[in-house]
Specification:
The protein has a domain at about 5-210: BirA Bifunctional Protein, domain 2, CATH 3.30.930.30. The chain has seven helices and five strands; from the N terminus they run βαβαβααββααα. The chain has helices at about 25-35, 55-70, 95-100, 105-125, 165-175, 180-200, 220-305, and strands at about 5-10, 50-55, 85-90, 130-135, 145-150. It has a five-stranded antiparallel beta sheet with strand order 1-3-5-4-2, with helices on both faces. The longest helix has about 80 residues, at about 220-305. The N and C termini lie far apart (about 130 Å).
């Protein structure tokens, strides 16, 4: 059973301490746009398909402009690594070569349906803050990148809590005076709830598991049921592939036999025509010979009956 993949990250104008150089607004949108040199992990980068909104580069411009306008609770400018861009990755857990298999057109239809559902979920999750959704089809697994930038509220404060469930839960318990452990638990709980919502709204419709077998905390009975289901699915896939191979072999054998039969019949017909042609040639030759003989006979008779020269008295 394939496992859903949803990852939500926050980025600022500059990377946070300890983060790689690309982990910034500029780095992320350039990677999403497949700008030259920005996607070194992709052997053959291809331009993304825009499914919603503007280009990733335009998203970056808006996010940096918003970062320059934003102020914190004390009216100070936003930190250079302060979160402004919410970037989400939604990956389809089926290999691209299987999705594009011409012998399995349903696979492409399923992917198209998932893609539409995923874009709709992003629109519901981020609302007007969603600026762009693009599709990448140049890696092993097709996936989407969604980009959202929060609006400015009272005092030019970024309304990040309105579009990031983890930040919303964190602020709620933080305002209530909770300790760091409680704050972290609230943050993680909200992000797990987001994963659950995505699974209910999108993933479950396409048979995608909420978590992979290595991460699932299941009772032994549930684990065995899941294992049996996965083994059954693998067995069905093997049986399908075997049946498909048998069908191809049978069709190829039948076509070969049919071709051989038709070829043999054609050869027989060709031989019969050739024999008839030879027989006709022999008959024509015999007739020509007979005509020549008769012509000689006629000429001989004409010579015999020709009158002799002079008159007798």
């Amino acid at each position: 059973m394939s496992t859903q993949f949803l990852h939500i990250s926050l980025y600022g104008p500059q990377p946070r301490k300890g983060e790689p150089a690309w982990a910034s607004i500029g780095g992320i949108v350039q990677e999403g746009a497949r700008a030259p040199g920005a996607a070194r992990h992709v052997p053959y980068p291809a331009a993304p398909t825009i499914l919603y909104g503007v280009t990733p580069i335009e998203v970056g411009r808006i996010a940096l402009e918003r970062a320059g306008q934003a102020r914190d609770t004390r009216g100070r400018r936003l930190r250079c690594d302060g979160a402004v861009l919410v970037a989400t990755v939604l990956s389809y857990p089926v290999r691209r070569d299987l999705v594009e298999d011409r012998d399995a057109p349903d696979a492409s239809d399923l992917y198209s349906a998932w893609r539409a559902e995923a874009v709709a979920w992003c629109q519901s999750q981020f609302g007007d803050a969603l600026l762009s959704v693009v599709e990448h089809a140049d890696e092993d697994y097709p996936h989407l990148h969604a980009y959202a930038v929060p609006a400015l509220g009272l005092g030019d404060r970024l309304q990040l809590e309105a579009i990031h469930p983890g930040r919303a839960a964190l602020k709620k318990v933080e305002d209530a005076g909770a300790d760091k452990k409680t704050q972290r638990a609230a943050y993680l709980g909200a992000m797990r709830a987001t994963q659950d919502d995505y699974h209910t709204t999108v993933g479950a419709k396409f048979g995608h598991a909420r978590v992979g077998p290595k991460r699932a905390r299941l009772a032994r009975t549930e684990h065995l049921v899941l294992r049996d289901a996965q083994q059954g699915q693998a067995r069905l896939e093997q049986e399908y592939e075997a049946a498909q191979a048998h069908l191809y072999h049978t069709m190829a054998t039948e076509l070969t036999q049919r071709f051989a039969t038709e070829l043999a019949e054609a050869r027989q017909q060709t031989q019969a025509i050739a024999q008839a042609h030879d027989e006709d040639q022999r008959r024509i030759a015999a007739l020509l010979a007979e005509c020549a003989r008769l012509r000689d006979v006629v000429q001989s008779l004409e010579h015999d009956i020709e009158p002799s020269g002079g008159y007798s008295r």
